[in-house]
Design brief:
single chain, about 160 residues, alpha/beta, 3-stranded antiparallel sheet, 6 helices, 7 strands
Length: about 160
């Protein structure tokens, strides 16, 4: 994916989740004290995404004010600014909860861990190495991919 790494503040947690769907490395910072946010961004070379105009003005070299009101508008804004073009090969490659890169797992290893109909219908499964959440390309994943593909073609 891109070399750009992000940290979103508590006002943009939904955006953070969708950026992970895109394949971006995103830390969701939920603490109220912004000093930790600045330390994290500086220490890990991350760009802070925030809706806090005062904070962004005070930390202009580290942060970007996100204008969009809806998650979709925010996602389009960030994607077009930092990613430039769709990169579907990176879609859904990170855990939406942990931000870890998903690992392919053998189908047999998920028997009993996913519903029987999912096990029978799907051949490929991925798992988060940290939280062990399982992922597969079902209807939900296809719908997410459609939204992500549209980011570069839909009008703002």
């Amino acid at each position: 994916m891109t070399e750009v790494r992000f940290v979103v503040d508590g006002m943009l947690l939904g955006l953070g989740r969708w950026l992970r769907f895109l394949g971006c490395d995103v830390v969701c910072f939920e603490e109220r004290r912004k000093s930790g946010l600045v330390r994290l961004a500086t220490g890990e070379g991350r760009i802070i995404l925030s809706k806090d105009t005062k904070f962004c003005a005070e930390h202009a070299s580290l942060s970007v004010y996100i204008k969009g009101e809806t998650v979709r508008e925010q996602l389009r804004e960030v994607a077009r600014r930092f990613l430039k073009k769709a990169q579907p090969e990176f879609y859904l490659t990170r855990c939406s909860r942990c931000n870890e890169i998903l690992q392919k797992v053998e189908k047999a290893s998920v028997r009993g861990l996913v519903p029987d109909y999912v096990f029978e219908k799907h051949q490929a499964f991925r798992q988060c190495p940290v939280c062990h959440r399982l992922y597969w390309d079902g209807d939900h994943a296809r719908n997410i991919r459609k939204v992500l593909d549209a980011l570069w073609t839909e009008k703002p």
